[in-house]
Amino acid sequence: MSYSIREAQEGDMPQVLTLIKELAVFEKESNAVEVTVEDLKNDGFGEKKLFHCFVGETQERIVGMALVYPRYSTWKGPVIHLEDLIVTEKMRGSGLGSALLKEVVNYGNDLGVRRICWEVLDWNEPAIAFYEKNGARVMRDWDVVQLDENGIKTFLELQ
Fold this sequence. Notes:
With about 160 residues, this protein is of the alpha+beta class.
């Protein structure tokens, strides 16, 4: 099946949100998605653009996406974070994931970043194998640390 990769447009956000929800189900977090189409539109295309998104489409239907945003490393300098690279289940194995990753890497290279980073679940062996096959280093000795909204409030209450 053929596909094309392009920069996302504001009108793509309903389909992008559908992909995000599909990923949440795959990652066994189906109720965790709080972002809305309006959030995606405002945050990706508003006055203060917080992310950049690429989509993969076939026959005018979005079947994959990659969302990145800028970060800064105290060791490396400017970097980008790949928040999600999602390929709908029926398109896995088509090369779309590789094409989206290539788009992200080209984008980062054009920006002059010194690193592109992301997380992968430790049980997602197909994704780990895909990333390693493409030259990424999966750092299994690092743990992800987060403060969600409740964690932020708890932290502030304890101070």
